[in-house]
Structures are given as structure tokens and as C-alpha cells.
Write a structure and sequence with these properties.
Elements lengths: L4 H13 L2 H8 L3 H12 L7 E4 L2 E4 L1 H27 L5 E8 L6 H11 L3 E8 L1 H9 L5 E4 L8 E16 L10 H6 L3 E4 L4 H13 L6 E4 L2 H9 L5 E4 L4 H6 L2 E3 L7 E10 L6 H21 L2 H12 L1
Parallel strand pairs: 3-4, 3-5, 7-8
Antiparallel strand pairs: 1-2, 5-11, 6-9, 6-10, 6-11
Length: 315
Amino acid sequence: MNYTLHQLQIFLKVSETGSITKAAEELHLTQPAVSIQLKNLQQHFDIPLIEVVNKKVYITEFGRELINTSKRILNEIDLIEQHTMAIKGKLTGKLNIAAVSTGKYIAPYYLSGFHNQYDGVELNLDVTNKGKVLESLEKNEIDFAFLSTIPGQIKLKKIDLMQDKLFLVGNGDVKISKTATTREILESRPLIFRENGSATRLMMEKFLQRCKVELKQKMELSSNEAVKQSLIAGLGISLMPLIGIKNELSLGHLKILPVKGTPINTSWNLVWLAEKKLSPVASAFVDYIKHEKMAIFDRHFSWTASLTEKQKKKS
């Protein structure tokens, strides 16, 4: 068989986009060029790789098998290129990283210094929900993930990055009586939740159970930003991670409500599959994080510790 790596790359791109036209655009090729390479690849197999119905591309079962094999082949080729460049003293390659939605407040700070140091490395950061992050980890589709809670069902290695804290937060105009109990505060206002599966949602449910709160009104939103904007609009109160509300607190748009049982301590971690064979780029990133994580925290997140101390004095 004489099919080429280029043909496999084109086939993967067509499978990702579901369209020959879109694949051609992303690969900066003409549509006929993509079609010709697909046809040449197909000639090596007696079983169809794709089916085109109403101009939409569908991958056959055999085609999906070839996708998995192609990914492994291309990953190995990429590793060879990385090792070759590493021997020459040049670090190149891709680093694929995912982060849960709240992770967007910290991930860029742990990536920027590494990216500046190794400008030959291509960084791909996908900020998504926890379920998709875990799925990408399990399928070995990413090198690393930023997570605040470590799942027990996957064998992972991790580096502790920093502590975070969850506070009960409301609109800057919220008035709380000094004599009001935690339960009275929670039951007197609508509670805004993150979606099921979110680490923040899990923490909030456990907090409410400890407080023995009877839920009367509830709103569920799928991102931290949506929760934050709802709080600013005065729609209710919610537990929020401190790292995501710095500006809103300083501007007075949001207010920390001093209630017993808060802040709730949590932590951020960089994780990867325990059995994963790290590429030179991934190994370099692990070394970078181990050596720089304290400096990154001091430079960008030391304000969280001082703000927490101020809050303790208020309560």
C-alpha cells in the first residue's frame, strides 16, 4: 500500500468537519484537490471509507477504524519530529489542553510563560464543561487538563497548582441583617446553580445539605459567566469561586456575604493520564509547571489570600 501521510491528514480533516468544502478551507487547499486525495486513498481499500448523502459526508464503520489508526500514526510521526528537534535544541510540537469553564481564569497564566519561552510550540486550549474534559482525558485526546476536582474513575497524575475558595455572593446592593442566620439568608433569596456535573454545583449542594436548607426557588445556568451576570442583575445568590470575581468585587458589582461554613476551600490541579507517554513538549511543560507554579501564583493570584483575610476579619 502506498497511501501517504498527507492523504491520512486530509481524511482526518474531512471526518472532523463532515464536509469536503470545509476541510479544503481549513487545509488551504482547493476542493478538487481534497476530493482527488480522498479518491486516491480510497483506491487502497475495497471497503468504502465515506458516504456522501445530500452533499454531507458520513464516515463508514471501517472509516472510523481508519480514523483511529491514522491518529496513532500521525501522533507517532509528530513525536519523531519533536524528538528530532529536541536533539537539535529546538522544542516544537503541539500541546493539547482542556480546562473546565472556571479554569479559564487560571489556565492562561500557567501557559503564557511557557509559550513565551518556547515559541515553536503550538498551544491548543479547549475551555468546556467537566464532562467533555473527562471524556477527552479518557480518550487520550489531550495532553493535560486543568481541574478543580480529581475524578476517582480515571488513573491520573497531577500537580497541585493553587488553592481557591468559594464564597456566597450576591449583588452589590444586597442587604443582610446582622442577626440573620445562614439558613435564613439562603432561604430568603433565589439560589443560582451551575449545571449538573459541575464541581461548583457539587460543592454548593453539599453546602446546602450541611445548612439543612429547604429549596424554594432555583435557577440553573451552564457557565460561571452566566451565573456572575445573573448575580450582578440581582436574580439571586450563589457560591462563586473567588478567582472569577476579582473585578466585580473591586467595582462593587458583587458582594461577598459573610455566612458560616464559607469560604469553602478547593484547589486547582494540572492532570494527565497516569500511563500516558509524554512527548518532549509535554515533558517540558511538566518541568516548567513544577518549577514556576509558585512564582505564577505569587505574581497573579496572591490577591486571593489577602482578600480572604480581609473577609475573615469582617465576619
